[in-house]
Amino acid sequence: MENERKTTNAYRIFLRRFLAGALLLLLLCALTVLVFDPFYHYHAPSFGLRPVLTEKEHQVDGTLRTFDYDGILLGSSHADNFDLSQAEALFGFPFVKAVRSGGNLFDLCAYADEAFEAQPALKLVLFNLDPAPLHGTAEESFAETGYPFYLQDKNPFNDVSYLLNKDVLLRRIPYELAQSASARFVAERPYSWYAEKDFSEAATLSHYPRHPRTEPMGDKEAGSENFEANCARLLALIEAHPATDFVFFLPPLSMLYWDSVYRAGTLEQVLYECEQVLARVLSYDNVSAYFFCDDRALITDLDRYMDFTHYDEKANDRILEELADPDSAFRLRSVEDVSARMQGMRSLVEDLLANEIKALEDAGRFHYSDG
Amino acid sequence: MFQTYSFLFLFLPVLLAGWYLLLHRGMHRAALSFLCAMSLMFYASFGVRALLLLAGSVLLTVLISRLMTLPGVRARGALVKGLAAAGIVSQLFLLLLYKIPPSMRLLLPVGLGFYTLRHIAYLADVANEGERDDLYSVLAFLLFFPTLTQGPITLREDMIGQFTTATERPFRAEFLARGLSLFTLGLAKKLLVADTLGHFVDLSYEYLPRTETLSAAVAVFLFVPQLYFDFSGYCDMAEGISGMLGLRLPLNFDSPLQAASAKELWRRWHITLSRFFLRYVYQPLGGSRRGKGRAVLLTLMVFLISGFWHGSTLGYLIWGFLAGLPVALRALGKDSSLFRTLDRLPLVLRRLVTFVWVSLAFVFFRAPDVETALTMLRHLLLPVPISRAFIRVLPTLVVTPESWLVKNLFAYANPALEELGAWLFAALFLCLVIVLLCAKNARRRVSEWTEAQFCSLPRALLLSLLLAWSVLSFSGVGSFLYFQY
Q: Within 10 Å of residue B33's Cβ, how many Cβ atoms?
């Protein structure tokens, strides 16, 4: 009997030590994540650390919730290289960036909703509109891309995936600490990628697999179902926040992009959708719009691009300067102005196809996709 | 799956509390019903379709086994045999439906390959023995979640008695201590060892055109340890959970990579599958009773069936053939001078030869198709100057949080040392794998620990560390390799 009790005690002692040890270690790990919080899920950077924002899928939700800001910059990868300190200097208040690769409009609007929930008195939304997502999927695409929902939803229980996560502990926190201390790290341009890329005509052309033939021009309203749903989502966002200023802008995609849509037979659709969306948003008093697609000097200079749509960070700086300037030549002032600019864009594309693109073609600079 | 936060922090505590509370109050049937309900809940996480299929399969097996043991039926041997055959054919049909050629294959429900074999064995046992089991115990046996998805393939004799007498084993701290220890070691084997090995193997397959002798060797010779740690890790967890409930599962892995011959290796690898084939296929077809030639053919046939059970592609059949070939050859030429010479080789050499042979056979198991397997084997013979060899960069491509940290600590000191950091991590990890393969296996180790050893503080803390480290690895881990069977 005595022996049996002793044995049971031995196992009980083991269990106490084992469970207490494991619990203590896990609590320590959770506490470390909570303190350093590399995804800013609980708080903005502390202990004098600079924000280290390099992983949009994991950090956008946190920054929208915990950072202090009056303006947000929404967009696709074309918005990744914007300098937030420049935005703050130009507009006079702090910004956060909410970017989503591909620029799905429902995703970007969901980010905007999160921002308004965290900062109801948001002053300004700078919204980068790409032509392709206008007729893209008209629903949120987070689930399809393996998004870390535990960082987005309000369920405190699934935070365990963040708090007890080896990757966060051994990789993200050391990375956060090292980058924050590094003089080379540019904290002002969250999620930027320009430093790792080769901006040159050769690189741009090598990343442009040209369609092997020119397809017949398609119906301009071919993507109307998705387009209308995307537009409705965008307009609902504007209507829900009449006290906030919205600035929409279409970025300066290179002339190769316009060649690609021309050869795919979707040029008229793209121009129609751009015109429609700009005209519709401009009907609201709290909205202004800018159109950079017809910046001929930039879009024909392929040394400023890394592929057929992505431009260098100097282009981002220039865009911000123009957005802050109400008298900018890129600003669209009325619905009539939008129509005229689209007509001008059509002429510009025709001219580019006949001259710059033709010259590249004649010089054998293109490589072609399989079709 | 066991390696989830919800399983560890919610499901397991609720299961243990409910099980022992009901047993403590003497509510035997309620305890078994509770276990069945929890098992169904566990399996429901793999989808409603899979759950319905399992429920249908269990209902059929239970119904037929009850019919077979009705007094009126039991007396009529032909009827019992007919019923058993109907049940077994139904289970085989279900199995074949999902194992038909890949182009026609339906999405395989998790664990189907395992539970259909269990049902077949149960029906055969009931037909032979004619005993009527307690219904609650049968349901608990057929639905017992730790064995449902990846085995071990338990038999009537392993489990029914334990479920029937569950009230005789009330809660003991020892059950929990040994069970938790084994569960932790299994978890660590899967998450910390197998998954890291998987990075090396997967990268070698991913970059197949660039592989040469050494990196092909990584793919070929690390896959078997990966599979061993993955599958035996699962079995240790299953045994650990069963142990916490006061139940024992049959041994499924007994340090097979320490075997000195192919025959010994297969006796120690996936033991319950070998037992199934031996008892329900090999022996009923005559076994070794009808001459050497027939025994050899039956051995090869059993290995081919085992290959087919894993998958109906040519690769699995070749694997089955290669796995069985040395066993069959030895049975054929037991007294030949070649085998006598082989048996006189030093133990370490015999172990090495066995490991190399089994690793080469497993290339056809791991590769997505025979062409890839042959390419990998060809590359194994492809010497390339080390300066151009893929092996130079392979460790740098492995990105686990641990390897990342080591690599970047070196890079932080001096960017030129990043590659060295990656290599150091790979070398240390490989040493750990070799030590673990040569050491006593987790199940044996835990069962041999005395109460005094359980009292050791460093042991408790080491296990705590392993559990915590494994839990931290829950995010971003892959599923078990044997889930697909």
A: 15
Q: Which of B399, B197, B395, B397 shows the shortest CA–CA distance to A166?
A: B399
Q: Are A330 and A289 in contact (CB under 8 A)?
A: no
Question: DSSP states of B87-150 as a string?
Answer: HHHHHHHHHHHHHS-TTTPPPPPTTHHHHHHHHHHHHHHHHHH-PPPPHHHHHHHHH-HHHHTT
- What ipTM does this complex have? 0.89
The ranges assigned to domains in chain B are 5-170
Structure tokens at B188: 């660590």
- Strands in A245-250's sheet, in edge-to-edge order, are A95-99, A71-75, A124-128, A245-250, A287-291, A331-332
Residues of B with a Cβ under 8 Å from any A Cβ are 5, 9, 172-174, 176-177, 180-181, 401-402, 404-405, 408, 412, 451-452, 454-455, 457, 459-461, 463-465, 467-469, 471-476
Closest in A14, A21, A160 to B455, CB measured? A14
Contact residues on chain B for A178, CB-CB shorter than 8 A: 408, 412
Give CA torsion, residues A311, A317, A318, A319, to 10 deg.
80
Q: A289 pairs with which residues across the strands?
A: A248, A332
Q: How far apart are CA B483 and CA B474, in angstroms?
A: 17
Q: What is the distance in angstroms between the Cα of A178 and the nearest Cα belonging to chain B?
A: 9
d(CA B303, CA B334): 19
pLDDT tens-place string over residues A68-119: 999 999 999 999 999 999 999 999 999 999 999 999 999 999 999 999 999 9
C-alpha B426/C-alpha B196 separation (Å) is 10
Q: Among positive and negative, which fits the CA dihedral B292, B297, B300, B302?
A: negative
Chain A residues whose beta carbon lies within 8 Å of the beta carbon of residue B469? 166
Q: Tell me how long chain B is.
A: 485
CB pair distance less than 8 Å for B451 and A11: yes
In 3D space, the residue among B80, B75, B153 whose CA is nearest the CA of residue B120 turns out to be B153
Regions of chain B where pLDDT drops below 70: 101-107, 476-485
Give the distance, in angstroms, between the CA of residue A89 and the centroid of all CA atoms in the same chain.
21
Tell me whether residues B174 and A18 touch, CB distance under 8 A.
no
Q: Angle B77-99/B112-129 helices, nearest 10 degrees?
A: 170
CB spacing of B468 vs A14 below 8 angstroms = no
> In chain A, what are the domains?
37-368 (3.40.50.1110)
Q: Is the dihedral of CA B56, B57, B62, B67 positive or negative?
A: positive
- Is pTM beyond 0.95? Reply is no
CA atoms within 13 A on the CB side of B45: 14
